[in-house]
Amino acid sequence: MSNEQSPLLPGSSSIFAPVRKAGHVSRPGHVSIWRVVFVFCFLVIPLMLLIDVEMPGLGFGSEPESAKHLCPQTEPLYPVANAKVAQTVLHVLDSHAFLDRAVAALSGAVQIATETYDTLPPLEKDPNAWKEFASFHLYLKKTFPLVHDSLKLTTVNTYGLVYEWTGSDTDLKPVLLAAHQDVVPVNPATIDQWTHPPFSGYFDGEWIWGRGSSDDKLGLISILLAIETLLSHKFQPTRTVVLAFGFDEEISGTQGAGKIAPYLEETYGRNSFAFLVDEGAGLVQQYGALFAAPGIGEKGYFDVRVDVTTEGGHSSIPPANHHTVSFWCLRTLAQAKAGYWHTVPTYRHI
Ligand SMILES: [Zn+2]
């Protein structure tokens, strides 16, 4: 999902996403390494909880007193059966070696320009136009050897990736972790406006710069790094974990997620996952703490075009507004059906 909706800089056209320049937490052209670590922690603990007995852990304790009764919060969970692995892994997170590794993994991923844009020809028509994804797959294989030794990998429609980390109890519904491999394109005419080139993956000591450093190679690399680290500490899940990485999310996902979804249904059945975690809305600062807002549900979208024909007249003296009723009915229908709508109403005088 592209959250990159700020105004385009001069020189960029509407098919290109905006260029990011300055170093600021909310700008997605680059990502702070602490975000990488945070997202990693966010993934690694839930993965261990999947097989564990849970117990109340530490509370944040910083939410306003007045909000507590309005919106009671459950206590954070912490692994018990795997407490030792959790401790070791969290210790690893504190190390410079891990920081270097996370930086290298994400930076390397950013350097592969897996851009998708609306005029990209469909995969079957021009496979060569998508060849960056083949390079990206080789990179993942080289960077995460344990993942590729231990998990079953299926490619769907050539570049869609589905990994299965088979759990010891196959009666449990698996969980699904999703991310996308592609990034919004960079208008070549604006490259000189970047502080660091968009596919440099440059690390300035605090930030990793470039397309995909946030959306969504951060998510994809964090998932693989979390599993690679857990595997290196001999962790094996009880519940199966499935990873699904599409490759054209920024242009609606018809060739990636659109093909992966029926594959998952065919392979695992209807209503076969315990839950899913996807890209979501990112990280937000709230109550003095950093919160992750992952996607925990999926919805489609619904385009509605409404052409309204009314009696003639002048727009300064419009007729009775009965067309409004049907417009709102349609919009409500779309909303109810898809949870999201994008209406393109047109008003035509004759
Ligand atoms: Zn995205």
From TrEMBL:
Superkingdom assignment: Eukaryota
Principal subcellular localization: membrane
Membrane-topology annotation of the record: Single-pass membrane protein
Localisation: Membrane
Record-level GO BP terms: proteolysis involved in protein catabolic process
Cited SUPFAM superfamilies: Zn-dependent exopeptidases
GO molecular function, one term: carboxypeptidase activity
Transmembrane segments: 33-51
Keywords, ordered alphabetically: Carboxypeptidase, Glycoprotein, Hydrolase, Isopeptide bond, Membrane, Metal-binding, Protease, Transmembrane, Transmembrane helix, Ubl conjugation, Zinc
Cofactor(s) needed for function: Zn(2+)
Stretches of the chain forming a coiled coil according to its record: none
GO annotations of cellular component type: fungal-type vacuole lumen; membrane
Family: Belongs to the peptidase M20A family.
PANTHER family cross-referenced by the UniProt entry: N-FATTY-ACYL-AMINO ACID SYNTHASE/HYDROLASE PM20D1, N-FATTY-ACYL-AMINO ACID SYNTHASE_HYDROLASE PM20D1
Protein name: Related to CPS1-gly-X carboxypeptidase YSCS
